[in-house]
Amino acid sequence: MTQYEVLNQLEQKKIHLKKAYQMLYKKQKERKPRRAHFVKMSISIPEEKGVNAFLKILLFLPIPLWIVKLVLKKRGNQKLSDEIPITFKEMLDLMMIRGSRVDVKTQDQVKVLIKTI
Fold first, then answer.
1. Which whole number is the average pLDDT over 6-26?
2. Is 18 helix (H, G, I), strand (E, B) or coil?
3. Considering the entire predicted model, what is its pTM?
4. In the chain, where does DSSP find H-type helix?
């Protein structure tokens, strides 16, 4: 049935408003988020060239997510901190989604970037 036929039937009150809406706008499928397999980290500390170089070499390759899972599963339902009301288990669920990105900037100008790929 075309859009005009549905609107004409609605105008003539042959069909109900909700039925016409369902005929005009089909329900979209809900997509499952893609699963991440690796975590890429970057840490930058100002005025510490040697430490920055060491961290860049250490974190050059992405870290497999199963290694992160092993560490975080042991923490379980502990809270991350008092300021952030999230548990380690909830954080692990968020890390499993591809494309998540956490950008942390602290008061002492340390920058931490965590991405999932």
1. 91
2. helix
3. 0.65
4. 3-11, 17-24, 49-58, 65-75, 88-95
